[in-house]
Design brief:
Length: about 220
């Protein structure tokens, strides 16, 4: 964790992956308290002292590529005379979400066939990757401590469903994430086939056939 030490105790999921940690290894460190979530995809190493520099380092990593400290925060970081640590000011390069979706979201139907087996595969992926933030079949009542500790809090999808969203919008959102909302990109962790399979489940979450519904009811976070 030498990198985290240089970064005021802060490290991101992308940085952990570059050091060879798998999703399972990262999740184990979160569950055992070695890593404490600050934002989705940004963690504090347990025992690190809380500082203003740490907060702004975490915020920049949450902002993603192109995010930088700006205005008074940048001046305070450089210790310019007359500028003291205060409210965080972060500038992030962010294209309008609606414009991005209109321009980039795939058009047409989901290429993954609607079958019990594919729905179950999607549920299993959801349980492994998504349930810790987005909950189980119990909806809002299943919000995990990780989800409750995030800001903004991620939607619990069994309560705040996305079944009405077009398939392409769901695919794009999982693939790219939504910067500054806590939703990370899964482009480097899941294949297109897996993302379409997840999309199939999300699109049919409220009308699952019995076999898939049983698997969904057994998902835990």
């Amino acid at each position: 964790m030498a990198l985290a030490t240089r970064q005021h105790g802060v490290i991101s999921t992308a940085e952990l992956r570059r050091f060879g940690l798998t999703e399972k290894a990262i999740r184990w460190r979160v569950e055992t308290g070695i890593l404490q979530p600050l934002f989705v995809g940004v963690f504090l190493v347990a025992g690190s002292p809380r500082t203003w520099e740490q907060r702004i380092t975490a915020a920049i990593r949450w902002g993603g590529d192109g995010a930088v400290a700006s205005y008074k925060s940048a001046a305070a970081l450089w210790r310019f005379d007359g500028f003291e640590p205060g409210p965080l000011e972060i500038w992030a390069a962010q294209t309008s979400l609606r414009a991005s979706l209109a321009r980039e979201a795939p058009q047409g139907p989901n290429p993954v066939e609607l079958t019990d087996a594919n729905l179950i595969a999607g549920i299993q992926l959801y349980g492994e990757r998504c349930a810790i933030c987005h909950g189980t079949a119990k909806g809002q009542a299943s919000a995990s401590p990780v989800a409750k500790g995030l800001y903004p809090q991620p939607p619990q999808l069994a309560t705040e469903g996305v079944e009405d969203d077009p398939d392409g919008v769901l695919f794009w959102t999982i693939l790219h994430g939504i910067r500054l909302t806590g939703m990370p990109s899964w482009a480097n962790a899941l294949s297109d086939q897996q993302i379409w399979t997840l999309t199939l489940f999300l699109k049919h979450m409220d009308k699952l056939p019995p076999a898939a519904q049983q698997v969904w009811q057994n998902v835990r976070n």
